[in-house]
Amino acid sequence: MKSLLVKIFFISALAIVFLGVPIKETKAQCAMCSLTAESSVKNGNTQGKTLNKGILFLLGCPFLAVGIVGLVWFKKYRDPEEPDDHGPEL
Predict the structure, then answer these.
(1) Phi/psi-derived region of residue 61, left when phi > 0, alpha when psi is between -120 and 50, beta in every other case
(2) Cβ(49)–Cβ(42) under 8 Å?
(3) Domain range spanning residue 67?
(4) For 8-56, how does the pLDDT look when each residue is reduced to its tens digit (9 = 90+)?
(5) Is 87 inside any structural domain?
(6) How many domains does the chain have?
């Protein structure tokens, strides 16, 4: 019980520290992506929409892969259900 309280306190302290740190705005795009997105907005092209769809696709693939692996693991290693027939043995 004491170790559980220590873990909860430690996690709470870390959360407070990380929430108190100011977040700076960063631009983490490569030069080509940034240039393509800016020029598409200025010229009215649809390349910016396609770029955003590609980013979302690349973001979703790892989540889908982890979900499939988790589902296969759950189906393979879960406990088999016991039959409910516990009648008297003859």
Answers:
(1) alpha
(2) no
(3) 31-77
(4) 888 888 888 877 777 666 555 677 777 777 777 777 776 667 777 787 8
(5) no
(6) 1
| Half-sphere exposure of residue 74: CA atoms within 13 angstroms, side-chain side | 6
pTM > 0.90: yes or no: no
Task: Residue count of the chain, please give it.
Answer: 90
Q: Does any domain span residue 15?
A: no
In whole angstroms, what separates CA 14 from the centre of its chain? 20
What type of residue sits at position 88?
Answer: P
Cβ count within 10 A of residue 40? 16
| Separation of CA 24 from chain center | 22
Residue 57 belongs to some domain of the structure? yes
